[in-house]
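pinning this so it doesn't scroll away 📌
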Amino acid sequence: LEVKKEPEADAARPGFYLGATKFAAANGVEAKSLNGWSYVHRAVGRHVIIAGNDAPDTLVGKRISSKETPLPYEGTLFSTAEFLYRFVGARFLSPDQSGTTFLPLSIIHVPRELNTKGSPHFVEHDIRNSTDLFYTANHCRSFTRIWSRYGHQHPSAVPVSEYGKTHPEYFILTGNVRQPKVSAQADQLCFANPQVRELIYKHVLARCDEGFDVIELGQADGFQPCQCQECAALYGVKVTTTPADGIAFHNDRAWCEKLWIMHRDMALRLMKDRPGKKLMITSYGPTVRPPQTFTEFPENTIIEMMHSDAESFEAWKPIKVPGGYSAYLYNWGNFHLVGLTPLNTISKIAEQNRLLVANNVRMVQVNGSPMSGQWGLEGPNIYAYVRLGIDPFSKTAEELFNEYLQASFRESEHPMRRFFLNLQKRAELWASIREYAYQSGRDPLFALGTLYTPDIVNSLEEDLGIAEKAAVLPEVKRRLDIVRYEFDFLKHLALVIHAYRNHQAMNDAHSLNQLLDAVDARNAFVAKVVNGDDKYPKKKNPAYLYLDEAGVKYAGRYLDRAPFNWDIAKMRANPAQLSQQNKSLEIAKVSAPLTLDSPL
């Protein structure tokens, strides 16, 4: 369509009027009155008004992200994308170059009585800070009016870099020593120190004064309690364990209660100091359980459910939370036991959305965004998830699953339907064995070997091969390339595991050489992923784009073990080492107590 500024428009021709136009204002659409991600679609005669909230972003540079990329007219862009989805067959499938497509339509029909004002069900939906059309069109850009440090505000309020040397008393006491730096991720605080509590509260006030409407409040990750006597006595809540009790001391219910009391006190102060502002307090780690010493929070409090399951929501029913709930989700990410392989099913996505809607969750944050090696194999799940976040009522997750397959694969739809249904069954099986896998020492080889047996891998390969042969449209071929890339990653992973299990059973030179060949082949594939090739140039690879070599090779930290971490070249150069590889460790009995000088 021809694009013109409003003064140049031909009034005799029908047009789409985008944003805060004079035509929109003359017909009762005041774009300046829109807020958040609300939008307007209105037909006026033969014209259509499409508008969104395009107010300037006054919080750029104030959020925790240091690489913000604000978009001008993003509200109208979202409104336009939603209009195109509903009336013009647009499908926003992924952020790569083939991620936007249009269904073939014989006619575009806009109802003459169209007059819609709406907004996404998730009014704030934090997935990724990116200017890619996918994120705006699917309303999953980073929080706009919420200040967040992904659940952990305390380290921003009392940073060790600023106070570690000058005020070690702000940090936890362990073994009679103040510990300004407990780990690389977690600066643990002494909450009995009134200056610490004041720094946390002043940090909240500062974020309010910057213009944020909601400030997230939560303790550092990997919570460790302070061992000082003042913390043990804080708020009169008695600690019933001692540091010598180890994990029992860390999990003592008293720490949960002390944190809730401290955070609730801050919410009460904020009501007086900054009326209208809200605190989003995290229910996570020690505070995953609701408080016991009180049953009601102030009206300016939102509880962020870091475990957004039915059991957690049920546990919170006796507690009055006037501000309602937000959710923190772990649907994707290479920190999971099964790493960069599929984690979700359409039925899981549907149930999760029903649970969030039933509990009136309107703000959602996603940990481990679906950005790392999952656009192909998790494609239908991601698509259904983001569309349900915009509108959970018009279409079911199953309908969106079908919508994705039709839009993505066109002439290759039927074999890809078999492919994804088969893949969904494996993810369903993971849900069944997950607890056992975690309890059995977090064994990823057990989990992955159980999920992706040789017959399943061969069946998936067959359907993907049929789909690749049937593909004609360039965009379909491109999407199949992404699926292929991710499936080959999964297949190499499975082949190594099965070769490893076979060698453990046979324990001979032939099976070991087969295993080394499988590990070599996988390492070569990982190198191609990391360094790029002709099809996927370096830094433009849609699969595993945001991971370094270790992140791809070891899928987080769970595969940094035999046989994936073997030095294959060194092993091949030393045949004696091959014969020793799987010999059991012999332990000799001793006749006297062991000392530092005892022979090994």
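📌 and the second one:
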Amino acid sequence: TLRFMAPEHLTGKPDTKSDIYSLGVTLYELLTHRPAFIKDRRKKTIQRILNAEFTPPRRVRPDIPRDLEAIVLKAMACEPAQRYESAAALANDLRHFVSGRPVRARRPMAVERTWLWVRRNPLVASLSILMILGAATSFLLISTEWRSAVAEGQRAERNLSLALESMDRLLEHFSSGWMAHPATTGADPDGQPVSDVFSSVAVSNYSASVLEDALRFYNRFTEQNATDPQLKRDTAKVHRRVGEIYQRIGEYAKAEQALRRSLQLLQPDTDVATSVEALERAEILNEIGMTLHAISQFSSAATEFRQAKQILANDRFRDNPACQAEIARTEINLGQSFWLMGQKGEAGRCHQHAIELLEGLVAHSSESVQHRLLLAQAYRIHARFPAPDKTGRSQSEYRAAGINILDGLVCDFPSIPDYRCELSEMLITSSYRSRRSQVPGQRSKDVERAVELARELHASHPSIPRYRAALAASLKALANETRRASPVDATLQFAESIGLYRDLAQDFQDVPVYRMLLASALREHGNDRRRSGDDEAARALLEEAITAQEDFIAFRPNSVYGALTLRQMREDLERLSTSLGSTEPATNSP
């Protein structure tokens, strides 16, 4: 937009330093939370830009460190000669600021030391500035190399390749992969070790927007270099990262769109794909399937899973552990879809096949973190959905084995959020049959631990709906465990669980399962209130439960379980209304 244009850009003489100015404006607005140039008529705005009529950052927010303000002002200097010489120089000054070293842009009157501010504001220093640093170095390095290539009248393939490689490394910090897998370590351009905090950039809409900005660069270069296969793959990779972040934060329509674009770019030129190409496409199909599964489009999800399975169903990939693990993941996903479509026999076969594959992989390579995680997931799902088991193991044995695996992963990798979430979900997983076989008192300990894990996750990552749902589920399980011994605590736990489910149902209206889970929590709390003699509260809770379940049925009219549960809720309310002497109908039948 106009306010991001450099003065020389407005006069028709842009150069590479124009991008540095635009980034300076972006940095200004991120720090001050307001536009650099007051929105006005176009002519007036242009005049303000040409005359550098903007309020210095520290006058807007006095808590902004002087060194950081100096970096912004140098990047936004009206004269190009007064700005940073290159993107690398700007990136280096930002690095120095984050690490507490002197910055080149420091003005003579600056007396405060940066490290004091870092100590007072660790979150801003470690997250916000690092994200800005990533955007600065990646976008500007590519833009600089491209413009240089155009100016020289050649492709400058080597320089562009190096810039793209640098951008790819930096954009990794904006992906969601660090939440599910241990981070790799390395060194920065100065040879200094890279801290794990680089992999801990918060996953949010902002992370996705940074990647979408990167996509605009990639798409531009791809259009002008349509025959460059590496550029095409790099563009596909960024689309995938965007899709995975949107999937994480519950933006499923956007996630599907980005993932399908990534898959389209990765279509092979021939029918014979390498194991790497086949695996990458199968992984994306699985992600698309899980995106559809999340919004209860189970049949469409199963179609994507079958395609993933078909890609890998080749004898050439039989001895490839990564491909076999992805087949197992596909079977896990497909089994869940089959179960929710009422095809229990098919679901059981998928789960059994997944367990067989993964147990073999773990036995052959026990150090593989990914194989262990997938096996724990397969155990959890098998423990939840009772199905014929040819090994003779009980659901309790599967559950215990899964907890053992996840305990090890959490111990080995305490900074990976998904491992703790998986453990929280596993600890409350049980069927009524397996619950009866548990050691007395152990169930309560497991549920309390599940709540503790989920509460920490939700507090640290509030933008991730899965962690919020894990906390709601564990609180509901805890309420059911404590309602006899401590009714007051149980009431508070039910209320917190219901509040979380209400928020999820409101925030993610295209995810029907949140309405069903809300209805279930309301019903259980209502029945608990009825047992305690508080019939009026019980009736209000059951009425709300019925409304939530009706909303769920509106999304999934063919759900047999949903219809059965709704009928049971209405019967509960009818009995309660009768006991209260009410002559009014409990609710209208459909």
